[in-house]
Design brief:
AB_hydrolase, globular, single chain, hydrolase, about 15% strand, triacylglycerol lipase activity, Alpha/beta hydrolase, 8 strands, about 30% helix, Rossmann fold, about 325 residues, AB_hydrolase_1, disordered N terminus, alpha/beta
Length: about 325
Amino acid sequence: PLPTADSHAALPTFADAKCWHCRSCRSRPAVAYANPLATIKTNMKNSIKQLIFLSAILFFGISCAQVKMNFKFDTSYGNNEAIGKYVEINDAKIYFEEYGKGEPLLLIHGNSGSIKSMGNQIEYFKSKYRVIVADNRGQGKSELKTDSLTFNQIAKDWEGLVNYLKLDSINIIGWSDGGIVGLKMSISGNTKIKKLVAMGANLRPDTTAVNNWAVNEALRRIKMTNSKVQERDTTANWIVLRQLAGLLGNQPNMPKEDLSKIKAEVLIIAGDEDIILTKHTLEIYENIPKAQLCIMPGETHFAPASNPVLFNEIVNRFLTSPFKRPDSDFTKW
């Protein structure tokens, strides 16, 4: 899951909020958590951006105390009226923007995010690629138009966008849920993917793949959003938030055997203090035929925004270098 980049100026910051349900306090803190309900006002009914921000904060209330992320750019990514477009895909209007020229590079954001979430990657790669970035279904400016949001649906939306733009082959950088979508697209084989970078992705939503505290928090939020919907609470768009919660707590459910179908060259990347367990990141890497692995030292799930310089350099090296996966067994040399 990702924090959204939108509405930071309009909503209070959480750097000084007191600790709330922070499992990390008793061990090594990777990300600090703050109580959003104590600080967020309930006058958000008419603001989609604030609703999406609330979703992110409710699920994983990121405090600026330990992980500082940059979302300040000269260009209004995600709200660029000069180039932003809508296209109807699978009965929903999907919003997207394009930057630069060259090989097509898709940037896919994570849960509760938007185009702006990938701003650090747009800034870096737009001088090297034709960068294509969209708001995933039900997030940002894109319509939901479904009663049951799934990763399969989001992947099909992206495949529809690729077809609409008549792209012969693509590269993908996916962050969190975006990495899952990238894996789904690579497995389906409906589009020709040359290289995929999957940051902080997972195959399952349980504690064999995701840190225990994150699983518990996601399940708690599913219960909470279900309750709000049943109560007909009007302080937020709980129907949308419930579906985003479902992506976190109930999905994905990809058999590791499906990874063998991937023909693309893949970089599996995560922070060493990621929400996704390192052993699970390794499991994904080991089951993809042409994969490389990078565990970023001293980084969390949010490295693309908290340390974009290092993240982008690692990704650029992978995208521009011939693929190799040498064997350390020198007896075979």
